[in-house]
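JOB MANIFEST
job_type = single_chain_structure
chain_count = 1
residues = 367
[input]
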Amino acid sequence: MKLRSKFSFWLMILIVLAVIIFAMPALSKISLLETIDKWFEDYTEAVEDAQGDDHDDHDDDEAATDSNMVVRIDDEIADYVGVETLTLAKTSFFPEAKALAKVVDLRPMLALRARHNQALAALNVAKVAEQAANKEFARLKSLAKGSGSVATKHISYAEATWREAKAKKQGLNFNVQAVRDEALQAWGDKVSAWILAADSKQWQRLLSHQDSLLLVMLPADASLSAEVSFIRIARDGSRKRARKAYFVSPALVTDPQIQGASYFFKTATGKLRTGMRLDAWVPQGKDPLEGIFIPEQAIVWSSGQPWVYVQLDDDIYQRRAIQSGVTTAGGLFLEQGIDAGDRLVIQGAQMLLSEEFRWQILDEDDD
């Protein structure tokens, strides 16, 4: 009996479902397919509504985050603590790579120059001796042909003397070329020409300490653009006080610990001394970046990151991140995140940060 009762129960449910599925669409003149489509549309709308609610919640979270970085300061208080703003303008900036430089010691150059001069002097002596021997050999041959009064052995001896002088001259010529090749390998084409030339004005300026030669060693991931004609250098690491050094030529040596490309530059000696290590700033690329310059006095630090405050209204200030900025002399250069026309707080930013955190503590206490 129980089995029959269960069977009758489920049979009744199936009949009711069949009536709903088939009879009701017929009575309402709507096909089964249209009914299913309507159910699917209702389901899709429900899903989209749910997703829309999620986006609204996300926007609310972002708004809440932004509101956590906004602080309101009364005008009188702002004036009292000295809040000052600067209206930002768009500017151009050439990014730079920081490199190391050192003042080159001239003593190896002096040694090369001395060896070159000695080799040249010996070669000149050999040339004179070879020319004299050649003339004597030619004179004896001429006498032998004319009168026959010169013994053959004297002619042979004169020829041997001439050939010996010629070979010696050739050997000394090799010595001169060896010194030149050594200079070329150590200092490159341009600097070696300064060292070896008899009347080089550039060498005289180096020798008299009017100019100093610098070896600039770039980081392994940096390069020197072909358009770069000068860089900035400083003894104390201050980009503000950096002065120009002018490009000379690529260098063939570098620091084994840095493993980067190296170049020779020259600059007025001033207070530079042999062996001094300097900081150098090398322009990267030929096209400038477009953006906003942020003075360093406007920057405050929180959680290990740099921030600035922008005035939104007379008494409302918002903290904005500038982590993507490029470090430059006197501040940061920012391509995005802050726009031209924004009013940047350049004095009083630290007070605004303290006030913002105080507000957050009060809000937490209220909760």
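[summary]
The CA atoms of residues 40 and 155 lie 121 Å apart.
Confidence is low (pLDDT under 50) at residues 54-65.
exit_status = 0
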